[in-house]
Specification:
41% of the residues lie in helices and 20% in strands. With 483 residues, it is of the alpha+beta class.
Length: 483
């Protein structure tokens, strides 16, 4: 059995029993007039603009699922509950507040999660455990590096001597540092600036920095706003990336009913996103100011984020590599036991016997399906399925391939956003920001090939020398006559 599979349900159940006895005793004393039953305050830390955690943050708060669940709990046990929401720009300041016991439950990315577990374990009242995932990408494509559209950089090596904005201690920083190591690039050769994501985004737009290494959704937000282009996809590190939920064990053991309510509320919010990702994207946009087209890139069908609470076995690779990196950096101690930090007991209680099946399923819970009535082909292959959001439309339209999508765009009056999968990796892209090649040797409905980066297109061209670069407007125009 993998160490990360080891659970500690006996500890939790014992704590729950003791808590129940304590509550009963307190209620008895209250009835005698000796004690009052205080309101239980639940401090939840989240990152409103981090799309990968909206089911445990932005949307969870908006839908009031947790408050409603706790109201039902209070009606049954006679207690009062108050939820206090605290918004953070990244995982590092959230962890600082958990160490100070000012936050009870928090959500953050993989690198900050392990840092959180290592730093808090030194304090009995602050020690945390990882209890659920919010969203993930097994390829690792939620963290990316962008450069100004006018930059001559084609690879990470081209950033030598240049200024790079990131948030130290964040998932974006971890991805970038790992990418530098993977490509044998000395980090000392770069000028690293520690900036909040919003500050870095403004800096790259204003020309104060030469690159921007960040976590979801900032890289694609910069791209969508025509402030930069993708230089490096974090998926090339070959490390799964995810965000998750941590809780202070002292709080969890003292309030098991709150934890049950929290998990149920996150599940209800996750289910709502999966059931109607377009509506969820529009609501997140209204709450955060992030354009709905960007939110939908991540949480739409075949999107960059798979919203799933289960802690996948595939994360074991990430745990090992992330810990090794953080130990070298000094953010995590070498004796930090990840298996002891990860506890899916609450998930098993939530999903019951269905948990193992859910955990083993790594398909994106939302997928593009249907029939392409223009190309007259079925839609279903994630490596080809594409999608267009027409201006003024209440729903999107599917296309069987990127080439079929170009044909559909060519007949449209106005397009709000078009999404295609990268030819090599399958990650979801904005069609008008992709690097396009025309391959005359490919079948007619697959003749136009989109890529996330110029390096990706170069690699394809090396294997298919007949392929030529083509701009997006020309690809749209010429797709009408291809085949």
């Amino acid at each position: 059995m993998n160490k990360t599979d080891t659970l500690r349900p006996r500890r939790r159940r014992t704590a729950a029993v003791l808590t129940a006895l304590a509550v009963a005793g307190a209620q008895a004393l209250t009835g005698c007039g000796l004690l009052t039953d205080p309101t239980v305050t639940v401090n939840v830390g989240y990152q409103s603009k981090t799309i990968n955690t909206v089911n445990a943050g932005t949307l969870l708060r908006d839908r009031e699922e947790l408050e409603n669940a706790l109201e039902r709990v209070g009606a049954a046990n006679g207690k009062r509950y108050r939820v206090v929401w605290q918004d953070f720009s990244s995982g590092a300041p959230l962890t600082a507040q958990m160490m100070a016991t000012h936050v009870d439950i928090g959500s953050m990315g993989d690198y900050p999660l392990l840092t959180n577990g290592s730093k808090t374990r030194k304090y009995a009242d602050a020690e945390t455990e990882l209890i659920a995932t919010t969203g993930y990408n097994l390829r690792g494509s939620l963290n990316q590096v962008v450069v100004p559209a006018s930059s001559s950089a084609r690879t990470l090596a081209d950033l030598s001597g240049q200024r790079v904005s990131t948030s130290l201690g964040s998932a974006g920083d971890g991805m970038f540092s790992t990418a530098l190591q993977r490509n044998d690039i000395d980090k000392a050769a770069l000028q690293i600036l520690n900036q909040d994501p919003a500050v870095g985004a403004a800096a790259i737009d204003g020309g104060q920095v030469d690159a921007f290494a960040q976590f979801v959704p900032w890289p694609q937000l910069v791209i969508y706003r025509n402030q930069g282009r993708l230089l490096y996809d974090g998926g090339d590190n070959e490390i799964p990336t995810f965000h998750g939920v941590v809780v202070r064990k002292q709080f969890a053991d003292g309030h098991p009913e709150v934890m049950t309510a929290f998990m149920q509320a996150v599940k209800a919010t996750t289910d709502a996103i999966v059931a109607d990702p377009l509506q969820a994207a529009q609501r997140v946009s209204a709450l955060t100011g992030i354009e709905p087209e960007v939110v939908y890139l991540y949480n739409g069908p075949n999107g960059l984020v798979s919203f799933d609470m289960t802690i996948k076995r595939e994360f074991g690779t990430a745990f090992t590599k992330v810990k090794d990196f953080l130990v070298k950096r000094g953010s995590v101690t070498a004796d930090f036991d990840v298996a002891e930090f990860v506890d899916d007991g609450y998930l098993r209680e939530l999903f019951g016997p269905d948990y193992d099946r859910r955990r083993a399923d790594v398909r994106n819970p939302t997928a593009l399906t249907g029939t392409d009535d223009l190309c007259r082909l079925p839609v279903g292959d994630p490596a080809q399925a594409s999608e267009v959001w027409m201006s003024g439309a209440d729903d999107t339209e599917v296309a069987a391939t990127p080439t079929c999508l170009l044909r559909r765009v060519a007949t449209a009056a106005e397009v709000r956003a078009a999404y295609v999968p990268d030819t090599a990796t399958g990650i979801r892209l904005f069609a008008d920001h992709a690097v396009w090649l025309r391959d005359p040797g490919a079948p007619p409905t697959q003749r136009y090939k989109p890529f996330a980066t110029e390096a990706g297109a170069d690699a394809y061209r090396a294997r298919h020398p007949q392929a030529t670069t083509i701009g997006y407007p020309a690809a749209v125009s010429q797709s009408r006559s291809s085949g």
